[in-house]
Amino acid sequence: MSSFLYELGRTAFRRRKTVVAVWLAILAVLGGFVAAFGGSFNDEFRLPGSESQEALDSLELTFPEVAGGSATMLVVTADGQPVDTDPYKSKIEDTVEKIDDLPHVDGATSPFDEMIDGVINADGDAAIVNVQYDQSVDLLPDSAKDDLQAEADRLQAELPEGSIVSPGGELYTVTSVHISIIEAIGVVIAFIVLIFTLGSAWAAGMPLVTAVIGVGIGMLLILGSTAFATVNSTTPMLALMLGLAVGIDYALFIVSRARQTMFDGHDPEESAARAIATAGSAVVFAGVTVIIALVGLSVAGIPFLTVMGIAAAVTVAIAVAVALTVTPALLGFLGYRLVPKKHRPGGSRHSATVSGAEGVEGEESAQRAESEESRPRKPGFVTRFYDAWVAAATKIPLLTVVIVIAGLGALALPAKDLQLALPDNGGAEEGTAPRTSYDLISEHFGEGFNSPLVVTANIISSTDPLGDLDDMKADIEKIDGVHKVIMAVPNRSADTGLIQIIPEYGPSDERTTEVVKKLRDLKPHFQDEYGFDTSVTGSNAVAIDVSDQLGGALLPFGIFVVGLSLILLMMVFRSIAVPIKATLGFLLSVGAAFGLVTLVFVQGHGADIFGVEKVGPVISFLPIILMGILFGLAMDYEVFLVSGMREAFAHGASAKDAIHRGFQSSARVVVAAAIIMFAVFAAFVPAGDAIIKSIAFGLAVGIFIDAFIVRMTFVPAVMALLGDKAWWLPRWLERTLPHFDVEGEGLYHQVQYKDWPGDGRDYSVYGEDLGLDGSGRPVFDKVDLVVQPGEVLAVSGQGATALLLTIAGRATPDRGELKVLGRVLPEEAPKVRSAIPYMVLNSAEDALITSPGYLRHTREQMPDIVLIDRADQARDHDTAEAAQDLISAALAAGSSVLLGLGNRDADWMLPPQTHYRLLDLDAHNRGKDTAHDLVRTS
């Protein structure tokens, strides 16, 4: 990974104009596609397979006149006048006729219709006009709202002064969110933090540029996907919020590392390449964890949530790609402007080195600079601050751990009262038409009129449909929590009955959920008494089912996230204790975030401070989204903080010193990243959209708690408690787990051996002290290899195949150093594999045997190394002849030849008088002379 990213960073730096042009072209193309084909968002919450959704879908066939969307128009008289007297009655009936003629309206019902009950309130001063549409709300055009609003305005103008006419209902359900200028505050704060962290306006601007490019592409992809997919309008806001935060943070990690590398004396190109290889590796890991967690939202089995997770995951993936390519490109444009002048060529540090070659004056200047550099410097305020922080956290580590667990546990306690529901008009912004209508209906009729429920019955076997439905109506009215049954009618073919029920409570009240359960509990009674199969449905029942399924998915999703974090962190840190500690910290952060959300949004503590207009249940998918996003971000901070500790420990520092070194090297960037994340998320809280407010609040407090309390306080304390045991991993697990080089250790090895062995000679293969283990014992050990272009090396004995596979980049040595064709292994193994075809002339598996045709093809595309295993065991004459021709051509072309031999004395495949070296691994393992320079004489 680090080797690939190193080359990627160098390439992007050198071809910076092309890189930036490609990304801008992608933006332009996507923008054009959206302008030409982009559709609209669909805010319908569907739950395929649920009782409520199946019954609702069935109504489209059996009762089409009630299967579409609906709306209401509330009329409140002036000064409590009776609504069933003129001018109210006549004007309302005239309006009902006009609404009935509007496009897409299937029917408008007058409140004075004798078949409808309960749509005139008990005081007689308010009435509800029910409007039924021919399509579901998500398919209706925006003009449907405009037309109904126009009729409401006309009626308002015709009624006496003081009357109120307010449209509302399902048509006006607020499920969309909008971007406002307030969100830009987070970006401004991020820029200020970046300037303080990086000390340069140029450097601070780079993460913002990359984040805007990534988010722009992500948003355009989401908008474009509306042309062929169902996308909820909450989706782009979530993607924007997350993409902006991670886009800034990922670029910050890379720019910070590049500047540090420049401070160490490397030029901008090398600094960019190393930053992408090191910090970029961590960015890839961090991005992958966020992406997996977001895609994991699909475990809930709810389509709109799956789309939301995938869209956000794609945006994060784009943010990673942009950070890895555009950031080094921008580094190429800015060069040394990212660092203070003293670190540039011609600055104090560089000039001393240059002038030292120009005489005594230059030598004295260099000595003075060296003396200044070596003079002890007093640590700066920031360094002293972080030293004090980690010292305080680890002074009495057990006390720190207890305080953190107790404190965050106390914050998490309110989470037991967390209530979930899908959005309704009661959460709309004050003063809007849907909120006004909702409040007026609640005031004059009761909240239950905002949450009607529907019971459908298959009455095809009934001989008295009206009588049976009336009896069912009476049964339903006996249920505690049912306010009134306003309608119980059969369809035209008398095979389906529909009963509309008004509960006593609002749509997001938990007691309404209990009413739905009680109605469903009547199903056996209706079956036994009437022989009817019944279902409870309606938009509110669907919303309740969605919330229930989301609540039920929380545990399996939590198990998925926790299990994933354990495995991923074991791969990164090669430890048992570190992943367990990281996961425990994540659970503490999530629990505290849930608790604080409950305190503010459900219980109302401090609601006014955060602009929460209505206290009650939060949106149903908040917990699962909060868990998914916080998991990914928590793992980011864990990796950047603890990897520095692991690196220090691996290089010989004591466990205690490793904690301090790792903390000091990473704390500044982690703090900056956390403040940026917090600012971006917190900027969405003041917005008027109730849907995103609670999610943004939960993410903001979750990030703050996880970064500052868990990662920077709890983690060092636990590491201090564990000591050396923090890095223990069983050997069998060490061998089993894949290795993820998140800190770019491989790159340091690759760079270190880039010019090795350093004698100026050209080697095809050069290796020292190579060893490979298998089944608990060495396959080969302490093997030295030297092969120059045009030379032949033959290997025989036990382990010959394994050694050739190692040289060809197909196996990784456990010990020693190896370069093949100038490539350092194992970091550049993919390039070695592509350069050296591995050919076998005999095998128990026919599929592995190289054909004569392939041998001849290899001769035409001559590689720098021709490697043939079991070269003395050709299956037939044609294969032997092709192998001989290939070897002769390789030597003539100056290529090296590596042969694996079953018989150490076999050399018939070589041209006569060919000098070659024989390495006998059997003799080598016995400690005898192993290498012989031989000549084929016949």
Write up what this structure looks like.
- The chain has 30 helices and 20 strands.
- Strand 16, helix 28 and strand 17 form a beta-alpha-beta unit.
- The longest helix has 35 residues, at 539-573.
- By secondary structure, the protein is α/β, with parallel strands linked by helices.
- Among the domains are: 51-172, 2-Layer Sandwich (Alpha-Beta Plaits), CATH 3.30.70.1320; 385-416 and 551-731, Multidrug efflux transporter AcrB transmembrane fold, CATH 1.20.1640.10; 453-537, Alpha-Beta Plaits, CATH 3.30.70; 757-935, Rossmann fold (3-Layer(aba) Sandwich).
- The two termini are 48 Å apart.
- Mean pLDDT is 84; it is low at 348-376.
Q: Give the N-terminus to C-terminus distance in angstroms.
A: 48 Å
The percent range for helix content is 55-70%
CATH architecture of the domain at 385-416 and 551-731: Up-down Bundle
Radius of gyration: 36 Å
Quaternary: single chain
Mean pLDDT: 84
Number of helices: 30
Largest sheet: 6 strands, mixed
Beta-strand content estimate:
5-15%
Low-confidence stretches: 348-376
Domain SSD: 204-333
Membrane topology: Multi-pass membrane protein
Keywords: Cell membrane, Membrane, Transmembrane, Transmembrane helix
Protein name: MMPL family transporter
Secondary structure elements and pairings:
Elements: H1 2-14, H2 16-37, H3 51-62, E1 70-76, H4 88-100, E2 105-109, E3 126-133, H5 143-158, E4 164-168, H6 184-198, H7 201-225, H8 234-263, H9 268-295, H10 303-334, H11 348-355, H12 360-374, H13 381-395, H14 397-412, E5 420-421, H15 433-444, E6 453-458, H16 465-477, E7 482-490, E8 496-503, H17 510-521, H18 523-530, E9 533-537, H19 539-573, H20 577-602, E10 618-619, H21 622-650, H22 655-682, H23 690-722, H24 731-736, H25 745-752, E11 765-774, E12 777-787, E13 792-796, H26 800-807, E14 815-820, E15 823-825, H27 829-835, E16 838-840, H28 852-860, E17 865-869, H29 877-893, E18 896-901, E19 915-920, H30 921-925, E20 931-935
Parallel strand pairs: 5-10, 13-18, 13-19, 16-17, 17-18
Antiparallel strand pairs: 1-3, 1-4, 2-3, 6-8, 6-9, 7-8, 11-12, 11-14, 14-15, 19-20
